[in-house]
């Protein structure tokens, strides 16, 4: 299998993934409505067609074959409308489609991982084939045998176009329909459109004609002999043409009508389409893929193009590069305008230009950052599918409501919240929604469970909430389980909040059995870790019998953040603003010593440990006397403590840079350093990771 | 800040091109004369402010901001157990695509060296930063600096 050029492969994967997502959402919506609209069928048909075409180009045969049959299926549906599928077969149709989508996904994954494609596609192929046979069996009138209409139709010259030219392409050259269409286009150049016809008529749009063209050739008919002779030149100039033959009128039928009336010649089974201007010839329908009215098809295509033209896809690495350069510009700008050389000078014009420059760089930074922002809708939509599948498998009834799908977050964050959200939704389905509908009815709830997935902005954070109206967390059961797992101790009083925290502890899974979807014991702690890796936090609230809400707080972007600059000795550190609760000037008597030689600070009725940066990082020139420094109360997730530093220098928006990978070998992340940033004067400030700073000591 | 790019053309005459000839950058660390293969060398900077990193081994001096790039700095004098002086000169090396700065006392010059004259170092104790040694025409002995293995010395 040839992999082709990497960039082509990238484009293929990008496009196919996009199409599959579109397909997924259409099928899900259609399943709920229990019917396909004509638009849906057309879109699915087009998607299958595109997947088939591009897969054929990339030589991904398994994808191509399946897409081909699915396309055939939809060609039938498109022609006969959804009514051809009896109610009883609908669920089967949807399942079949989901299986097909899953198959595509799996193959795409194989391609992405550079693995070989699945060879054995017979099962799925067989399913599609038998389904096609089934629906054709139920509508015998529509099931048109390919051998029926096409051959004789090709032999009959339509009236008014006596001069024929039949072209045969090389065997096995592939894409015969498109080659034929290219031929038509080139003949358009030498011959006016109304002066010739060709068949099969819909070679441009209907790849199913490919087989017919390969088998019985591509026939063109001309009104004038000269045009035909000119066309021969075009044909000989084309590649992949095996042979051609000209056909002159044998016996001109009496009274050739100026414009043929095709309706009379149409086979009875083909639906009459009088308002179709291009239907010179009833399309032979080998796989029942007849020409639909071109207008009905052209309209959706046009609107889609309109959308596409305003969007372009850019590789993420280029955006990263742009963001890096913009970050540099912002820093350089402040280096220039705050240059020590300018001190004491009165430069009116310079100050004015500098202000203008600052405004522009700010704007540039905003634009560069907004480029990386994408809506969470794609991630949210995927959950529809998970809820659907789990409803079927677990035999529960639940409905997923999405709120705030168009909330935008940084691309890297969108990528990393998909798995956590999926875990939580699965948990809600598996553990949250009641096993029996009767239980729900008895509790006075809607028999159909509801899971609400919502996203909203608050300043520099995105809040994602997954709420279910299931049975909620049973504190006693969780505690019993935590004790069994060795996470809690018997006889100790735990608050409701403490008990919920066990759910996030590693190795905790309340389901006593491992199910297909959740219960592997690596659930919520993985969620917590993933979310914390991107600087977010997870919290759970629950009321027994009412349901459970999981809230993810995630920073909008990891590339830029608001930070508080603090100094310790000659070092400067940046603390993320969202971790800071308050800062205090204190005196020595406010500090309380604890048993293990540590210090505590009492604030709002609670005690918090005090961490001195000077001691933690062994910075010798840091201040020792608490009256000279400042205490900052920090909070990250469940963790809360006070940090003692020398001075607060001020708030600043900083561009986050990762530390060199060499330093990772010293486990720098564990010592509470998340990254670094370049200050206005070109110096570096280390960004503290409040979560690891205290635990890491 | 006096940054200067290396001008290798000035040191090399064009007709010395040979398969076994390699360019080496000579630098001094305490009493030792080292030579680093020029393929690894990106540039030399002096007196650059270094931001210290807490809780790392002492030979990791910290990081610097070199035109927007964050580069870690390693003091080989501490790695070799020598006493660091104030004369700080940083050689920026690119090792497997990663930039790293090496603090040394002074950078001397570029030389052409016939790699055939390089021989294995007989000594064992500083083996970890030395991959070979050879005598220079002026009678001094150069230790070949082991760039490739610098980063694995954690």
Comma- or semicolon-separated keywords:
heterodimer, A: 697 residues, alpha+beta, Four Helix Bundle (Hemerythrin (Met), subunit A), Alpha-Beta Plaits, Helix Hairpins, 6-stranded mixed β-sheet, 5-stranded mixed β-sheet, B: 154 residues, mainly beta, OB fold (Dihydrolipoamide Acetyltransferase, E2P), 10 strands, globular, disordered N terminus
Model description:
The complex is a heterodimer of chains A (697) and B (154). In chain A, helix 4 packs antiparallel against helix 5 and helix 12 runs antiparallel to helix 13. Chain A is built from 22 helices and 22 strands. Chain A has a 6-stranded mixed β-sheet. In chain A, strands 6-8-9-11-10 form a 5-stranded mixed β-sheet. The two termini of chain A are 53 Å apart. Chain A is α+β, with helices and mostly antiparallel strands. Chain A has 5 domains: 133 residues, Four Helix Bundle (Hemerythrin (Met), subunit A) (Up-down Bundle), CATH 1.20.120; 112 residues, Alpha-Beta Plaits (2-Layer Sandwich); 56 residues, Helix Hairpins, CATH 1.10.287; 182 residues, Heat Shock Protein 90, CATH 3.30.565; 136 residues, OB fold (Dihydrolipoamide Acetyltransferase, E2P) (Beta Barrel). The longest helix of chain A has 28 residues. Chain B is built from 2 helices and 10 strands. In chain B, the strands form 2 sheets. Chain B has a 5-stranded mixed β-sheet, with no helix packed on it. A 5-stranded mixed β-sheet of chain B has the order 3-6-7-5-4. Chain B has a single domain, classed as OB fold (Dihydrolipoamide Acetyltransferase, E2P). Chain B has 154 residues and is mainly beta. In chain B, strand 9 and strand 10 form a beta hairpin. Classes of the chains: A alpha+beta (697), B mainly beta (154). At the A-B interface, helix 12, helix 21, strand 21 and strand 22 of A face strand 4, strand 5 and strand 7 of B.
């Amino acid at each position: 299998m040839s992999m082709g050029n990497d960039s082509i492969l990238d484009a293929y994967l990008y496009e196919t993934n996009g199409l599959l997502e579109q397909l997924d959402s259409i099928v899900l919506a259609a399943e709920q409505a229990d019917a396909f609209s004509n638009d849906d069928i057309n879109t699915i048909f087009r998607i299958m067609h595109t997947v088939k075409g591009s897969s054929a180009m990339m030589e991904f045969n398994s994808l191509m074959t399946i897409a081909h049959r699915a396309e055939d299926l939809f060609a039938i549906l498109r022609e006969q409308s959804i009514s051809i599928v009896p109610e009883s077969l609908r669920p089967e149709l949807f399942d079949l489609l989901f299986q097909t989508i899953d198959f595509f996904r799996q193959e795409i994954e194989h391609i992405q991982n550079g693995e070989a494609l699945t060879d054995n596609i017979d099962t799925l192929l067989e399913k599609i084939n038998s389904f096609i046979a089934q629906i054709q069996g139920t509508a015998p009138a529509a099931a048109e045998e390919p051998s029926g209409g096409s051959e004789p139709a090709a032999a009959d010259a339509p009236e008014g176009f006596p001069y024929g030219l039949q072209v045969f392409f090389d065997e096995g050259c592939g894409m015969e329909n498109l080659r034929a269409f290219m031929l038509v286009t080139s003949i358009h150049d030498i011959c006016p459109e109304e002066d010739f016809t060709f068949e099969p008529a819909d070679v441009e749009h209907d790849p199913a004609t490919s087989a017919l063209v390969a088998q019985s050739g591509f026939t063109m008919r001309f009104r004038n002999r000269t045009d035909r002779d000119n066309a021969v030149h075009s044909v000989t100039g084309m590649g992949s043409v095996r042979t051609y033959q000209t056909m002159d009128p044998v016996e001109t039928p009496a009274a050739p009508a100026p414009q043929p009336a095709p309706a009379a010649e149409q086979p009875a089974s083909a639906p009459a389409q009088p308002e179709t201007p291009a239907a010179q010839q009833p399309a032979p329908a080998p796989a029942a893929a007849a020409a639909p009215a071109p207008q009905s098809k052209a309209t959706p295509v046009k609107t889609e193009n309109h959308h596409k033209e305003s969007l372009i896809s850019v590789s993420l690495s280029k955006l990263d590069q742009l963001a890096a350069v913009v970050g540099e510009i912002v820093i350089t700008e402040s280096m220039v305008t705050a240059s020590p050389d300018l001190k004491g000078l009165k430069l009116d014009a310079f100050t004015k230009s500098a202000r203008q420059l600052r405004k522009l760089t700010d704007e540039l930074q905003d634009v560069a950052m907004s480029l990386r922002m994408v809506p969470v809708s794609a991630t949210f939509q995927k959950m529809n599918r998970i809820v659907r599948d789990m409803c079927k498998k677990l035999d529960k009834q639940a409905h997923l409501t999405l709120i705030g799908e168009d909330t935008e977050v940084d691309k890297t964050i969108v990528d990393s919240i998909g798995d956590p959200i999926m875990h939580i939704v699965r948990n809600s389905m598996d553990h949250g929604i009641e096993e029996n509908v009767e239980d729900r009815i008895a509790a006075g709830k809607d028999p159909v469970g509801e899971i609400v997935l919502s996203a909203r902005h608050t300043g520099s954070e995105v809040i994602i909430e997954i709420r279910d109206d299931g049975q909620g967390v049973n504190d006693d059961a969780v505690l019993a389980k935590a004790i069994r797992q060795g996470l809690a101790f018997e006889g100790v009083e735990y608050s409701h909040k403490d008990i919920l925290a066990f759910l996030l502890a590693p190795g905790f899974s309340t389901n006593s059995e491992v199910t297909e979807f959740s219960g592997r014991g690596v659930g919520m702690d993985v969620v917590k870790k993933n979310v914390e890796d991107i600087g977010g936090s997870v919290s759970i609230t629950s009321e027994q019998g009412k349901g459970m809400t999981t809230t993810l707080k995630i920073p909008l972007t990891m590339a830029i953040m608001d930070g508080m600059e603090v100094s310790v000795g000659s070092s400067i550190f940046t603390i993320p603003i969202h971790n800071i609760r308050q800062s205090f000037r204190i005196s020595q008597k406010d500090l309380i010593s604890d048993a293990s030689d540590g210090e505590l600070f009492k604030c709002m009725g609670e005690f918090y440990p005090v961490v001195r940066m000077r001691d933690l990082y062994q910075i010798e020139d840091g201040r020792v006397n608490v009256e000279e420094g400042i205490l900052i109360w920090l909070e990250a997730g469940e963790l809360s403590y006070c940090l003692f530093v020398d001075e607060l220098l001020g708030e600043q928006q900083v561009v986050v840079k990762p530390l060199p990978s060499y330093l990772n070998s010293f486990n720098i992340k564990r010592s509470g350093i998340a990254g670094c940033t370049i200050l206005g004067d070109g110096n570096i400030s280390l960004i503290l990771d409040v979560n690891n700073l205290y635990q890491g000591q | 800040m006096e940054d200067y790019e290396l001008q290798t053309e000035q040191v090399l005459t064009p007709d010395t091109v040979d398969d076994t000839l390699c360019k080496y950058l000579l630098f001094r660390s305490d009493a030792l004369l080292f030579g680093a293969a020029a393929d690894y060398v990106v540039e030399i900077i002096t007196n650059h402010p270094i931001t210290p990193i807490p809780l790392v081994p002492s030979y990791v001096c910290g990081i610097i901001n070199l035109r927007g790039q964050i580069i870690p700095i390693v003091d080989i004098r501490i790695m070799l157990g020598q006493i660091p002086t104030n004369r700080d000169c940083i050689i920026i090396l690119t090792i497997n695509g990663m930039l790293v700065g090496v603090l040394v006392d002074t950078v001397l010059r570029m030389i052409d060296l016939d790699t055939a004259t390089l021989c294995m170092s007989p000594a064992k104790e500083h083996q970890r930063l030395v991959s070979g040694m050879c005598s220079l025409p002026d009678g001094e002995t150069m230790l070949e600096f082991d760039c490739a293995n610098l980063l694995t010395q954690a």
